[in-house]
Structures are given as structure tokens and as C-alpha cells.
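Researcher: I'd like a structural prediction for the single chain below. Treat it as a standalone chain; there are no partners to consider.
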Amino acid sequence: MTLARRNSTFLVLLGLAGCTDGPTTPTATDDTNDTSLERAGVVSAIVEAEQGGAPGFYFLPPLVAAPDSTGPFDGSLLDVVSIEICALDGDDCAGDPVAVFTGTSGGGSESIRVDEENEHYIVNWHTKRFDVETDQAYRIRIVANAIEQAYADLWVHPKGGKPVADDGRPGIRYGRTLPIKFRVDSGAVIEALASVEEQHDLKPLVLGLGVSVQPSAAVVVDYWTPDGPRLRVERSTSTEHALVLPRLLPASPYEYEVTFTFDDPTRSVDPISGSWETDPLPDDLEAIALTSTGQSTAPLTMLELREPTFQGFAAVDAIGRVVWYHRTDGASWGWTRRSNGNFVFLDTQGGLNEVTPTGDVVATLTRANGEVIHHDVIATPQNTLYFMTRHPQAVDGVTWTGEIIWEWDPDSGDLDARWNAFDFLSPATDTTDRSRTSDWLHGNSLDIGASGTVLLSSPWLNQVIAIPGDFSGIAWRLGGKNATIFTDSAGAFDFQHTAAEIQEGRVLLFDNRGGEVDGQPVSRALELELDFETDSAATVWTFQAPNDNYASIISSARRMENGNTMVAFGPSDGWRDSRGPIEVYEVQSDGTVVWNLVVEGPNHMYRATPFVSLAGEVEVDD
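Model: Treating it as a single chain, here is the predicted structure.
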């Protein structure tokens, strides 16, 4: 653990000034028995603001008479101040405290509280509720940030005895309640403490930091390596911070610096620094060659890698270096992100798994009602998940396997079937020569469109099916058999993937087999504008790779926030008659290539998707 400490600007030493022997518990505004101040011998000594002590710290009645004047009150220290009461042995505490009070806890059903109206802190010490001995001296310690700031000594006399013993010892009778009131003026600086605990047992390429600080403060952590950008994570004001430092290059030396910002600008603590070295990539992921040309405008891109090398999800930075990964048992089949920042990964064997950025699997759904989950998962505005299953159903005595769209809430476990293809389509009329009883529609992507519709892509039908947000039927069918919206000749697509309504009436998809150059098929990204008045769709944008790459299956097209498009060609050269390589392009609207990443090693890559951060980290200037 690394510890930072700043010297306190004051330390107050007090003798007991007074007490109350009232038989009832005083309220925060009750100065019952202030007449005890007039008892001879009760006030033995006091050192505070009015007696030449540290400015800004005052005890109040019934311990002492009210001060003549004070500055503005600071009532923001409940998470800083505590009261500890211990038995004295000479001038030192003997053993553990008999009572400890904080702003949230304490013995005897008490805790320190703030009386904003009367501008003080108060806690009541009910002596009979604690293991207190009579004829014993006790010290009341005011502690801030684990450092003693002030104390007062008094005796506990036997029940029925005198508040002040015959020998002049001031104190209270056992069984009575002592209200302890004090105030701190704004500007009185209390020592700030901070510590950092490193966590190296998280997901590879992630460092965890547990940061504690008193009083509460906002935290900023910068971290960097010589060959990478300076990254930053931030947290708002608190006393405890759990931070994740992700997006780390493998086998690299890193440094970090933690800085603190307090609500009170007069408080400060020195920054805390540390260093560590990240682990190398596993051999099968290291074996994949990533060749980058240019630089992506997306901070990160998730590659969905498949056999025979590493199988799973790998995030690469803007120049194609792996900075995070998640291994899966089966082939990747899509991913999404929940509003809590967790990933939800789908693979052919493990089904759906919700995974934190630190690698913890917090929810799993292997199958839905016994049916195989396949091809895609998307997060909804209500923070649930939509996905598809292969659903067998008899039609005219023949069992066909179609699609059901389900909704799953990982938090509650609720699972509901929302839309069944057999309710709105029929194998008798909605089939092509690709359709077969074991795979009628071959749904391969889902999307929640800008208009609120849910888009289902069926490459078997060469069709994008729009489903109303309430799943009550079919809103429209773009392209293919029995279409309700027809494409122009340039926009006819074939075996499409990742169909998405990027704005109302605009559909972007990866057209695997719809392009052609010199009699050879080529793949392309295709954007169509839908006209619901004429039931037609016009081509408004396309992109073909400069090398006329042909991806016979899988692949993706994703519109980015800046208007660029990320297009991924998934198969390797020769795999399923494709003309690779596996590669990713980021292109501008005019077709200018901003970034190209070539992937060598896997047979195929399912998709590539740009995203902003793993756990809220951002790049900052050095």
C-alpha cells in the first residue's frame, strides 16, 4: 500500500471544561445543565481558539462556555471526524477504545451528527451502555483522518457520587449522559490522508486501484507507457474509489499518478505514484499478425476472432495493437454493451455471458427455453437484451426451424419470448432455394433502429425485416422475396449482414455478394434510403475495398459517430471461396480510407466494431 499524508495545521489539547449529569439524553440543541459550568473545579484547563490555540476549532456548552465569536461554520466533515473514548493509564490510552463514534456508526445507538441550524457537531456518550469503570480517568479524543486532533480528560465517578470528587477531580457520575459538542470553522485545515491499493489479479491488461481518501475527494488517475498514449480515469467525490486502468499494451512498463481534489480548496494531499509491468499476450493471440496502415478515429475496435488461433474477442487500439481480450469456448457470435458498462458476449458454446471490464462473468444464459442462441445480441433502451434462438415448429406436418426474438434481463433473470417468425411469415410462401427445414430464415443480425423498429436480417431471403417496437407484426420488408420496399438495381443486395437503421429511413448493411467487378463477385458496404411513399429504396452510398475483397459470408459494416464507416471483411483468402484477406477499413463518406488493418492467422473473423472505451478511460495530452 502506498500512503500519502499532509502535516496537520493544528492540534488542540484540552482539559475537561465541564459536563452534564442530566438523567435524560439531550437533543442536539439542548444545553440542559449548563449550570455545571458554574461548579467550582469543573473547568481545569482549555486550549482552543480563544486561549491561543489553533484557530477555527471550538468546544461548546455544556463542556465549556460559548465562545465570544467564531467564523463561518464547516458542517461538511462527518466523513472525516470521529470521537474515540479510552481509559487512561497515566497520560496514555490503555488498550482499545471503549467507545468509537463516526458520522455513520457508534455504540449506544449514537453517531456524530450535524446541527446545521445551531452550527455544531454533537454525539451523546451514554456511559451506562459501555464497559466503563468508576473511579477511572477517560480521554475523549477527537480524531480526523485517523489523526488525533484534540482531547479532553475526565473522571467517571460512582453512581450516586459527586460530579466533582472531594479531591477536586472533575468528571461525571456513572450512568449519566455526556453530550459532546464542537464546531470547526471553514478554513480550518484538517489533515488529509490518501492511500492506494494495487490489484494485479484482474483480467490481463487491466490494473485495479483501490483508492481511499479522507476527507472525501474527487480522484484523477493518469497512466502511461513510453510507446502508448497517456490515459486518464476519473471518479467524483467519495472516500472510497474502485478504479480500473484498462487499455494496456502487453509486456510494457507503466506508471500512474493519482491526484485528489477536495471540496474545500484549503485541503490538499500529495499525489500518489506507482509503476508496474503488464503481462505478455497468450501465445495463440500473439501469433495473430495485425498490420495497421493509417490510424482509426475510433479509440478502440473489437475484433471477433475465430479458429484456428485465439478464439474470442480482442480490442485493438487506433493503430491495431491488442489492449484487451476475452477468450470464449466457442466461436464468437456478436456482442453488445449494457448501460452499466459491462460487455455481453455471445459464442457458439457458452451462449450469452455478461462480463465486466475486469473479466468477471456476472450473468450467463446458455440457452433460452432449451433453444440455441445464435448470431447476435443487442442491448435495449431499457437495459435488457434482445437475441434470437433457433425455434422448431410444425407447419402442415413438417417441422421447420425458424427464429424467435427473446428479451432477457440479466439483473432480474426475466426471460420472455417477444416475436415468433412463424406468427407472421410462412415456410409455404416465404422461402428461397437457400431455405431448408433445419434453417428456414437464417437470421444473422438484430438492430434497434432510429425509428424504434427492430431489424432482423435474413440472408436466406436476401431481406431485412422491420418489426414494430411492440413486436406486433411486421412493419416492412426491404428487398428479397415478398418485399414491401423494393431496391433499385444498384441497391439489390445478396446474403447481407449487420443490417442497421442508422437514421430514420436509412439502412446500412454489409452486402456480401451483391457487387461485381469484371465478372467477379465483390463485397461492399451499402447504404439505402427508404421512401415509404413509393415503397422504394435508393442507393445513397457504397464502399468496395481497393483490392476488390470478396467475403462470401460473415463480415460487418458499422456507421461511426463522426460519420465514417467501419467495414470488416471476415473470411481469409480461399476460405469458403472468399478472396481475403481478413481486414478492416475505416472510410470517410467520400470513400477515402482513413485506416486499414490486415489480420493474419485466423480462418475468419466474425465482425469488427468501433467503440470508445473499456472502462471510461480517455486519452489526454502529456
